Amino acid sequence: MTIIFYDIPSTLPENAWSLNTWKVRYCLNYKGIAYRTEWVEYPDIESHCKKLGIKPTDKRDDGSDEYTLPAIHDPSTGVYLAESILIADYLDKTYPDTPPVLPAHTLGLQVAFVEAFGNSLKGLAGFILPNVCSALNPPSMQYFRRTREAAFGKKLEDLVPQGETAVQKWATFKESLGKADSWYATMDSKLEGELKNTQFLMGDTLSFADINIAGYLIWLRIVWGEDNERWQEMLTWHGGRWKGLMEKLKKYETVV
Amino acid sequence: MTIIFYDIPSTLPENAWSLNTWKVRYCLNYKGIAYRTEWVEYPDIESHCKKLGIKPTDKRDDGSDEYTLPAIHDPSTGVYLAESILIADYLDKTYPDTPPVLPAHTLGLQVAFVEAFGNSLKGLAGFILPNVCSALNPPSMQYFRRTREAAFGKKLEDLVPQGETAVQKWATFKESLGKADSWYATMDSKLEGELKNTQFLMGDTLSFADINIAGYLIWLRIVWGEDNERWQEMLTWHGGRWKGLMEKLKKYETVV
C-alpha cells in the first residue's frame, strides 16, 4: 500500500521546500517505498494532526503542544507518525528489506548528531527566513510571518544582515558548516585512494546524518534558487564536500 | 608489547582523575590491552609531547600549539598519538581482535556525539574546577590555577556559584544531562522487557559515546568523592541512568 506523506506546499516549482520534510522525502526515495504527498498549509497543520491522531512533536514556550510536519500515515499498519528521525526509524523497522537509514543501532547517535548539527549552525537564519516567507502560499505566508516575527521580536525583513554584519554572519555560517566538514574528515582519514572525500559520514553507507545535512542544503538551494550566489559559493566550500553530497543524493530528489 | 599510557597524576587515592584520560583508560581496560601508565604533571605535558613527537591537539587563542593528554605510545608499532577518540580509533584498527569502541563505521558520528555532549553540558564548571585544582600535585596545581584563572578571568574560588545562583546552575546542569538521557531514551523505546533501561547508546553494544559520558561521571565521582551529596543526587537522576552506566563500567575502572 502507498504511504501518505504530509508536507508543506509553496509557490516554488518544486513545491517541496521544508528542510525537515525533505529529510523524510530523501528517506522514502532512497528506500524506494511507494508514497504520495498530501500538502498541508501551515495554519492547518495543528488541526490536521489532531484530526488524524498524530502526536505533537514539541512544546511551545507557553507550554502548549506544537504540531509539526513531516508526518506520515501508513495504511498497511494504521500508523500515523510525525518527526523526521522517528519516521526514519519506523520505516527501517517496518520495511526491513529496504536499505536502512539508521544502520547498526545508531538511532541514539543519529539523534544526537541531528541536534549537534542543528546547534552548530550559526548565523544562517537572517539569510534564508525572509526568502522562505516569500515562497509560501498566502495562508502559510501570513502564519509564518506572524509566528517567526513573534519568535525573533522583529520584522522578518529586519533579520537580513547588512554590510559588515552580513560579511561576518556569512563567515560564521561557513565556519559552523566547517565543523560538520571536520566530522566527515575524521572518516576520510580512515579511507584510502578514490573513496577518500567521496564518502558519507558512516563511510560508504548513506545514513540519516547525511540526509539531515542534505535537508538543509536542498532547502537553501530551492528557497534561494540554484543560481543564487551564496548557494554557488557554498558549492565551493570545504573541498566541495557539500556539492559532492548533493550530487550523491540527486537521484533521491523526486517529488511525488 | 605493553602500551605506555600518559596520564596526569593527582593527590587522590585513585591518582587518575582527568575526564579525558579516563576515556582512554576505559577503552584500554575494556579491550583488555596490556598497558602501563606514565604520569606527567601539567607543566611538563608540552615538553613531554614535543620530545616524543606527539602532535598538538588544538590551538590556543593566541594561535600557539596546545598539547594535551591523554596520549599513548605503542612500542609494537612505534606510534605516538594524542586525543582520546583518535586513540580509540587507533586501538580499534591496530587490535581488531579486541571489542571495538567505534563499531560499524561510527567514528564520524561518535566525534559529533562527543562534541554534542560536551557542548550540551551547561553550568558545571564552577562546581568542579576548584576541586580539581585542590586535588593536584603542587606543580600541576599552580599550572591549572594560572591557566584556568586566565581563561575565566577570575579566581577559581570565585567560580563557585552561591545561593540561588548555585540552585539555578545545578538545575541547568541536570537539565543538560537530561538531554543526553533523551538520546538514550530514543534507544530504550526500541527495546523490550529487561533490556530496556539497561543498555548503551548503541543498544547492547558499549561504544565510545558511553565511555565519553562515563569519563565525565567518574571525573565528578573521583574529584568530589563518592560521598559528595551532589554526586549522590546525580545517581538518582533520569531514572538511575547514570548510576546504571557507572555500574556497567565498574569492571573497567582499574588503574594500572
TrEMBL record, chains A, B:
It comes from the Eukaryota. PROSITE patterns: GST_NTER. SUPFAM superfamilies: GST C-terminal domain-like, Thioredoxin-like. Residues 8-99 form the GST N-terminal domain. Gene3D superfamilies: 1.20.1050.10, Glutaredoxin. This is GST N-terminal domain-containing protein. It comes from Galerina marginata (strain CBS 339.88). The lineage of its organism: Eukaryota, Fungi, Dikarya, Basidiomycota, Agaricomycotina.
